[in-house]
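Key result, reporting period 2: structure in, sequence out.
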């Protein structure tokens, strides 16, 4: 029976939001015959996640024992996953109603498709939900096309923190790269450079805006440029190797 593995790295300051993430997971609908597991890995020295939450039979939980960063923590969760498809979800975010179903259905249409992403709405500190304007049209994208659009636009063409990806393809590119920023985006761009994928028109992610999120911290902003440079060189090296081997 096919399975979806949701991969979440949790820093101690985001543990307060895990119950909301879990509610969005357990209320999600999947295609007939599919199962779900949540592989949750805590990035820190001690366990701070509610023991009652992680006692759920569909949750696989562990703690690093030290702070290793988001990408490494995601990969440690990936090691325990058994799903045919992996879905990245940040600890402070939530799946939008119907979002997981839309992503899984889209990537399941063909074995050639390796990834799918959707639209996102922002959950503001006052509780308001704000829909985001899509940068790219929905549909199937050929290998390399998303990276071209990313560089052309000069900004992320979609929210990469929730992406539905074929597990074998994720392993082939080495999982999440050890970057201080953009590790989730880098992984999706790497897959999109090698495999076709789909952008769905549905809202799939509820992205939380709050004072403790990593992306608004000054130290985090300083890592954007080198992380982008790494991603471009990584993707180009992979695609050049593919051309050389033909």
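The corresponding designed sequence is given below.
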């Amino acid at each position: 029976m096919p399975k979806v593995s949701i991969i979440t790295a949790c820093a101690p300051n985001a543990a307060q939001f895990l119950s909301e993430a879990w509610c969005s997971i357990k209320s999600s609908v999947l295609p007939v015959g599919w199962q779900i597991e949540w592989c949750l890995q805590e990035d820190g020295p001690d366990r701070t996640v509610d023991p009652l939450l992680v006692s759920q039979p569909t949750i696989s939980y562990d703690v690093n024992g030290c702070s290793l960063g988001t990408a490494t923590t995601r990969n440690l969760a990936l090691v325990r996953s058994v799903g045919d498809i992996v879905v990245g979800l940040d600890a402070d975010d939530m799946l939008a109603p119907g979002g997981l179903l839309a992503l899984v259905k889209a990537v399941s249409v063909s074995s050639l498709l390796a990834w799918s992403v959707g639209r996102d709405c922002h959950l503001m500190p006052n509780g308001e939900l704000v829909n985001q304007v899509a940068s790219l049209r929905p549909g199937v994208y050929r290998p390399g096309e998303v990276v071209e659009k990313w560089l052309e636009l000069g900004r992320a063409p979609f929210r990469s923190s929730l992406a539905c990806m074929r597990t074998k393809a994720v392993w082939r590119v080495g999982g999440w790269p050890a970057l201080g920023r953009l590790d989730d985006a880098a992984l999706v761009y790497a897959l999109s450079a090698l495999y076709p994928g789909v952008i769905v028109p549905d809202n799939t992610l509820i992205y939380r805006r709050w004072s403790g999120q990593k992306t608004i911290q000054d130290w985090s902003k300083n890592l954007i440029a080198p992380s982008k440079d790494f991603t471009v060189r990584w993707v180009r090296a992979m695609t050049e190797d593919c051309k050389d081997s033909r």
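The beta strands are 3-10, 35-42, 59-63, 85-88, 94-95, 115-123, 129-131, 139-141, 164-166, 197-208. The first helix runs from residue 18 to 26. This case is discussed further under Risks and Mitigation.
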